[in-house]
Write a structure and sequence with these properties.
Blueprint (H helix, E strand, L loop, with lengths): L3 E8 L1 H5 L8 H13 L8 E8 L9 H11 L5 E4 L2 H4 L3 H14 L3 E4 L4 E2 L10 H30 L12 E3 L6 E3 L4 H12 L4 H10 L5 H7 L17 H8 L8 E3 L19 E3 L9 H6 L20 E3 L6 E8 L2 E9 L8 H4 L2 E3 H23 L5 H30 L5 H45 L7 H7 E8 L2 E6 L5
Parallel strand pairs: 1-2, 1-3, 3-4, 10-14
Antiparallel strand pairs: 4-5, 6-7, 8-9, 11-12, 12-13, 14-15
Helix pairs in contact: 5-6, 8-10, 13-15, 14-15
Length: 506
């Protein structure tokens, strides 16, 4: 059998910090796997593909390279996976065992963990075997224990004055040697200016407008300049100070010389319950302050409104200005003191003098009409295209035909063996015919596997079709339709709208 090998390696952030442990490096893992392949006659000469997750934990499978690997496995591009040990593949023993016991055997994938002496081809038992399961459980508990140790270690460092986050907040820079925050002479004056403007009772939008009129570089400008952000997001061609920037700075206690560790503030959307900040650890006087505690306290809001986090618009979090890329806001149109309609607009006009953004005005009723017509059109196109795909029933029938052929070849192979035993054919002829039959069986198995994968894909398409068919006869746009089908809507003016769909268009 010709193998297409996936060489998977992984290094977590914690492993990276262990500079002395060379054995855990990506390079070293690859070297071990490459040597293993070279010294294995069955694997030697196979096509090898490399997948690496550098800086990702193994406690879950939310890793880009492992996701790509699983996708390639499903597509039939890979039929063998080799790792240094099971912990590199994953530390969640339930998930790892699921792949080794169910997913990979179903897809006929050979899995090898070198240091654990595990090879699915030679394993007589599943991973319920005590040795393998015990190792996976140990890896799982090690991961949880490591997470707690890392957290405890970070708190200890923060108490000593080290700044434990990767990047310094705007107004500061992080000393590479001492790991402490130092005032950045270039950006600290901007922070002082913002607090001074807030102290003078300017609103967030007024502060934004003043900074933008003065052409003061934004936080993102400095990140790009210093290489922290390699590339500025395409959607924000017009880089301006936003209300969110001002709020983030004036509410951050770091500027008073204190460090806040493991701060957590956000509640889940749709929930009115407030999350208690029992996870906050405040460490005082860890670095030089930019503003005084008195000024910080004076610019804090006098009260906090308990806002309902439920979206008030079916287009919530979807509408963007086509010119600056920021989210649109809405206001009500009143008639006889009654709300009659919503209109959407770009709030950037209150923060900058971007003339193009001033043209962003559209009524919700008009927007619903445009989006609904466009969605119905896309649904019709989608269903029409998907109807062209071959029926699953035909695929299943073809699999039955192939399985019948396979059984016939297996039976004929037995007859050939009997002919050889009865000396009706020579040994050379027997071996030749036997190899030919085995090749045919392997070819049929490969074809059956491809068809089974196609059936799985068709099942997914059927589920998608049901979703599309559900809304084909809808009479109006609703929240559920927007959430399911639409990623973003960019408004350029009342007649120019660009919709980004969540589904792939053919």
């Amino acid at each position: 059998m010709q193998y297409k090998i996936a060489m998977y390696t992984r290094l977590s952030k914690e492993d990276k910090e262990k500079a002395n442990i060379e054995s855990e490096s990506i390079v070293n893992q690859k070297s071990i796997i490459e040597d293993f392949i070279k010294n294995n006659n069955e694997l030697k000469g196979s096509e090898v593909f490399s997948y690496s997750d550098d800086g990702y934990v193994g406690s879950n499978f939310e890793r880009p390279a492992i996701k790509q690997l699983i996708e390639d496995v499903k597509q039939g591009k890979i039929n063998c996976i080799i790792v240094k040990d099971l912990s590199r593949f994953g530390r969640d023993y339930i998930e790892v065992n699921n792949y080794l016991d169910k997913v990979f055997p179903f897809l006929n994938i050979r899995f090898i963990a070198i240091n654990d002496n595990y090879d699915s081809k030679n394993n007589k038992y599943s991973t319920t075997d005590l040795d393998i399961s015990f190792k996976n459980i140990i890896y799982s508990y090690y991961s949880k224990d490591l997470s707690m140790k890392v957290r405890t270690g970070l708190i200890a460092k923060a108490k000593q004055g080290d700044y434990i986050l990767s990047y310094a907040p705007f107004g500061y820079k992080k000393n590479k040697d001492t790991k402490r925050l130092e005032i950045d002479e270039e950006t600290a004056p901007i922070v002082k200016m913002i607090f001074q403007l807030a102290l003078e009772k300017n609103t967030y939008s007024q502060i934004c407008k003043l900074l933008n009129e003065m052409k003061i570089p934004t936080r993102s400008d400095f990140k790009t300049k210093n290489g922290i952000r390699k590339k500025y997001p395409k959607r924000l061609d017009n880089k301006i100070w936003k209300i969110e920037d001002i709020r983030a700075i004036t509410n951050n206690e770091v500027y008073t010389g204190n460090t806040i560790v493991f701060k957590r503030r956000k509640a889940k959307c749709g929930s009115n319950k407030t999350i208690k900040n029992d996870n906050i650890l405040k460490i005082k006087n860890t670095h030089e302050p930019i503003i005084s505690k008195e000024i910080f306290n004076k610019v804090q809001p006098k009260y906090i409104t308990n806002k309902n986090l439920n979206p008030k618009s079916i287009f919530a979090y979807k509408l963007k200005c086509g010119h600056c890329g920021y989210s649109l806001r809405y206001a009500y149109i009143y008639k006889n003191k009654q709300k009659v309609e919503k209109k959407y607009y770009c709030h950037s006009v209150k923060e900058s003098n971007n003339i193009a953004c001033r043209n962003i005005r559209i009524l919700e009723s008009k927007l619903k009409e445009i989006v609904f017509k466009s969605l119905k059109k896309q649904i019709l196109i989608y269903l029409k295209e998907k109807d062209k795909i071959a029926d699953k029933t035909n695929l299943k029938k073809y699999i039955l035909i192939l399985e019948k052929q396979q059984n016939e070849i297996i039976s004929s192979r037995r007859l050939i063996y009997e002919d050889y035993i009865n000396q009706k054919i020579t040994k050379e002829d027997y071996l030749k015919i036997k190899l030919e039959r085995e090749d045919l069986i392997n070819e049929i198995k490969e074809e059956i596997k491809k068809l089974e994968l196609k059936i799985i894909e068709h099942k997914k398409l059927d589920e998608e079709n049901k979703i599309f068919e559900k809304y084909i006869n809808s009479n109006e746009l609703n929240q559920e339709m927007v959430d399911i089908f639409i990623k973003n809507i960019y408004i350029y003016d009342k007649d120019t709208i660009k919709i980004e769909w969540k589904f792939k268009k053919d």
